[in-house]
Structures are given as structure tokens and as C-alpha cells.
Amino acid sequence: MTEALITGGVLGLGVFLLLRALFPARPGLVARLLELDAAGQGDGPPRFQLVLPDEEVGAFRRGLGERLARFYAARGWEARSVRADLALLGRSFEGFLATKVLLAVWGLLAYPFVAGWLYLMGWEVSPTIPLWVALAVSAVFFLLPDVQVRRDANARRRDFRHVVGAFLDLVAMNLAGGRGVPEALLLSVSVSGDEANWPMARIREALANARIVGITPWQALGQLGDEINVDELRDLSAALGLVADDGAKVRASLTARAATLRRRELAEIEGRAGERSQSMLVAQLLLCAGFVVFITYPAAMKMLGA
């Protein structure tokens, strides 16, 4: 009876997916409202895309990712945090979705392996156990890309904030030399020509594209901050937009922001160092406890008569 239910469920799921592929759903109300908002905001400053698609994504993965992205868009699922993390890492949203789905499908292959292992071991168990194990493995594989992207993006975002503090100092020094705000911004990012300094390269690319599309440099910085979810760039854009005509106020504001960034970064470094110290202390205590058990085990067994 159980095998029949499982077979019927899998067959019904396959028929459902086939019908959805042949007759795709119409865009929902949320998607239509977003399209209307985007069309209504066409008079605002033009935006540009700074992230290129993944070069290593094959044709199959690209097609699958595009279909999944359209599925997300039809239902109004924006996934802003994931998109910001992927933009910071230089990866495409379509490739990310395709990777998640393909890993989940690979996780389902655990069913025959688990079932075959149980059969070889001679254990008479219900076939639902391998099925639940395969579903659990598939769910874990589906969530692994999110964990990896979030971890890598947090590390790169910390590096980006560190570079933003140095960038603010450079802009303040160029303003003190009598240059205007746009010229100071461009000269500050041109100081670092090393390609390994990728945050400066991203800022330099944003400022270069701003000149092409015809927007101000601080608007470009704000768009970059929105794209990669870095609050410091958004705050810098707002501050420069308010006091761009007063060089003295800009210098004082940038110097204060750079000092605040350094203090916060120092506090975060001290906090991470304290966490690692506590982890090392716990590891040492566990090692000492294991050593004590190892030393006292023979005496305790002798006293108990074992």
C-alpha cells in the first residue's frame, strides 16, 4: 500500500510539472504592479548593470536559470538580499538558481544508494525511509548555495567597508588640495591601479559608467551601494548630494565618516578575536577533560572490579 502511494505521488508530481511546463502561469498581480512602478520611474536617473553573467555557466544551466528567474519574477519574488550578495560576488542570479535546483536533483539520487545499502545489509525496512533520507539530503543540497553565498558575501562586504574608509580619506585629501567633488572622486579611485584591489575597481567602474550614462558620481555611488547592499556607499551618496557645493563641509563630513568606519571596524575585529579566544578556551577545556578521563579510566575500572 505504501509503495503504491509513493508511486502515485511521484507520478502525479511528474504530470503536474509537465502541465506547468506546457502551460506556464500568467504573471501575478505583484509582478504587474512592479512593472508599472518600473515604467513610472522611467524619468529618474538611468541605472547601469555592473555585474557580468557567469562565464562558466553552460547553455543548459543558463536556460534553466532564466526560466527559474522568470518564474520568480512572475510571482513577485525579488530576493533582494541574495541578489545583492551575488552582485558583490560577481555572479548571476540565473546561474545561482540553476545551481540550487541541480544540487537538489542530485540529492534525490541518495534514494537508490540508501535503498541499495539497506538491501545489501539485509535490513528489512520500509521504502519510505530511503525516500525521506533522499528528501532531507535534497533539501540540504538546495540550501547549501545560500549558505555559501551569504558567507562569501559577508567576508567580501567587510573588505569593501575597509576600502571605503581609505577611499573617504583619499577624497578628503584631494578636496583639501582644491579639487572639486567629481574630480576628487575620480582621482581617489585612480590611485590604486592594482587589480587585486577589487573594491576600488568596482567604485572606479561605477564612476566611469556614471560619466557614460550622464548621472552624477554620487548617484553612481548610491546605485552601487543599493546593488551590493553596502550602507556606507548609500550614506556617502546622500551626504555628497546634500553638500556637494561646499568643499569645507564635505571634507569634515568625509573625515568624520572615515574615523567612524575605522572605529567600527576595530570593534568588529576585537569582537571576532574575543569569539575565537573563547572557542580556543572551550577546545582546551575539552582536551583537558579527555586527558583526565584517559588517566582515571584504568583506576576507576579497577575500583569497580570490571
From TrEMBL:
The keyword Transmembrane applies. Keywords: Membrane, Transmembrane, Transmembrane helix. Coiled coil: none annotated. The keyword Iron-sulfur does not apply. The chain crosses the membrane at residues 6-23, 101-123, 129-147, 281-300. This is Pilus assembly protein TadC. It comes from Thermocatellispora tengchongensis.
